[in-house]
Write a structure and sequence with these properties.
76% helix; mainly alpha; 0% strand
Length: 324
């Protein structure tokens, strides 16, 4: 009797212990699962979305996440960066500008509430955002890109050609051509792209170094290696080649080499017959070389018919915008 009682008691204790262990394990697993579902996959998904350049999805998530904690540094930073990179994907100028404004607002908000964390990456994106806003924000672009460039925490090696190019462009818009030239020369050492090459030609022209400008222009007409397909594709950029021929034509024009200038301008027309600037230039040739004012005015009027706001054509015709 006593032995049976002890057995029953022992089995009861074992059963209760087993039930308690199962209950504890299930409770722990549930807690762990909830935590994992909230934290683990979310973080992984954000990284995957970032790697896949799914910036709009990141924006939607981050905007919702910040409703719970608007001071979350990482989420704010990710949102600001995503606003910027998403804006670069947009063709609509209004929407593009709106997302650039959102990026600037978000990153400046972070600057206002955090003064004890590395800001180099933030300065870098903020400077680029101001650069894409255009000429009237170039001073702010220069300010923050320089802050990024000379920050001790800046990951310089991965973006040095990029930041040099942005600084060169921003200084160019500020008409600080000497500073612009310095950064474009640095950019060209890292990335011999046609866009940087054109910028070097243009800025050298603006600083009065015409021979150097011509040297860079001539690089556009050097035959490419068959293996260099990426550069070959870039050479076919019609918009860029219009700028190259226009600049070359201007140099010839200023040297009174009117026939060579005309040939350059004619090549622009073959690329784009609706480029209003080239009609102004051809009109100038007829005025200066031939003293043929009726023909010159014909070309200036053609320029105005394409772009009524073109100041150079209106000045030559002495026509105000109201008169036109």
């Amino acid at each position: 009797m006593g032995i049976n009682y002890l057995k029953c008691t022992f089995y009861l204790i074992i059963s209760l212990s087993l039930l308690f262990f199962i209950f504890y394990f299930l409770s722990y697993f549930k807690t762990f699962s909830n935590s994992y579902l909230k934290a683990g996959p979310t973080e992984v998904n954000l990284l995957v979305l970032w790697d896949n350049k799914e910036y709009k999805e990141i924006i939607d998530y981050a905007e919702n996440g910040l409703k719970e904690n608007k001071f979350d540094f990482n989420l704010n930073l990710l949102l600001g960066f995503s606003y910027f990179y998403y804006s670069l994907m947009l063709n609509d100028s209004y929407l593009k500008n709106q997302f650039l404004d959102n990026a600037i607002e978000r990153l400046r908000f972070l600057m206002s509430i955090n003064d004890d964390v590395p800001m180099s990456s933030l300065y870098y994106i903020l400077g680029k955002a101001y650069s894409h806003k255009g000429e009237y924000y170039s001073d702010l672009s220069v300010k923050y890109l320089n802050k990024a460039l000379y920050s001790s925490s800046f990951d310089f090696m991965s973006v040095k050609d990029d930041i040099y190019e942005y600084l060169g462009y921003s200084y160019q818009l500020l008409k600080d051509y000497n500073s612009s030239l310095k950064f474009f020369e640095k950019a060209y050492k890292e990335n011999k792209s046609d866009l940087v090459l054109w910028s070097l030609a243009y800025v050298n022209y603006k600083t009065g170094n015409i021979d150097k400008s011509v040297e860079y222009i001539n690089k556009f007409f050097i035959p490419l290696d068959e293996d260099n397909e990426s550069l070959r594709d870039e050479k076919s950029d019609d918009n860029l080649m219009q700028k190259v021929y226009l600049l070359y034509g201007d140099i010839y024009f200023e040297r009174d080499a009117y026939e060579d200038a005309f040939n350059c301008y004619d090549k622009v027309l073959k690329i784009n017959s609706l480029n209003p600037n080239v009609y102004v230039k051809i009109g100038d040739i007829y005025r200066k070389r031939d003293k043929d004012y009726p023909k010159a005015r014909k070309y200036w009027r053609e320029a105005l018919s394409i772009n009524p706001y073109l100041e150079e054509a209106r000045e030559r015709l002495k026509i105000s915008l109201e008169d036109f």
